[in-house]
């Protein structure tokens, strides 16, 4: 976990934002500090307007419902890299693929920088940053309205551009994913776009690190088509994967050494 007071407090805000109520005892165990240290952190965060405190814990203010992409970039770095490497190995020469906005798809784009004879379409700024100097990758930006928090394009212009293309594969990110309801995001614009992205693609992959499995941080959902593939990392607990297996979802657990388990 993050070291240092500032990094710890930033991480507490992210946890409260994405997971809801967290007790002092849970935060103390998570960060390896004393409960009194956590109480001081919470007091400072409340004074700064970052958190609203409740008895024994903390909950994010409604004004901060979604962590920014820049906040998420350093989270689960190794997990995202393992997922990205597995995903990149699925992509063949001559394919046209669609990459969602997000930090994990940004990691996938990083793995594709030296690809040849490849077309990548994207709604994400991180993907564009990674492929800006990739000489042999043809890049299509599905522009539209920029969501500053997620650094992704959404809206009618994005959807219109999407309707002009089809894709061999789409790689989607998520704030949370469940076997029952699909992908969870902060806004209906995002979930509508993800559904359309899946509809335009032959194969659908959802790339999420293990902390996002079963999570429901928001109330907007994207349904996923039959045959979609869940790709996560080696920290995924069997109990968190069981609901996906029960519904017949193909599950890939990417290992740091490049191997996989299902």
UniProtKB/TrEMBL annotation:
Name one matching Pfam family: DeoRC
Tagged with keyword Transcription regulation: yes
Q: Name one GO molecular function term.
A: DNA binding
- UniProt-listed InterPro entries: Carb_Metab_HTH_regulators, DeoR-like_C, DeoR_HTH, NagB/RpiA_transferase-like, WH-like_DNA-bd_sf, WH_DNA-bd_sf
The record's listing under SUPFAM superfamilies reads: NagB/RpiA/CoA transferase-like (SSF100950), Winged helix' DNA-binding domain (SSF46785)
Q: So where does this one cross the membrane?
A: none
Name the UniProt key words of this record, in alphabetical order.
DNA-binding, Transcription, Transcription regulation
Annotated HTH deoR-type domain ranges read 5-60
Q: What is the protein's given name?
A: DeoR/GlpR family DNA-binding transcription regulator
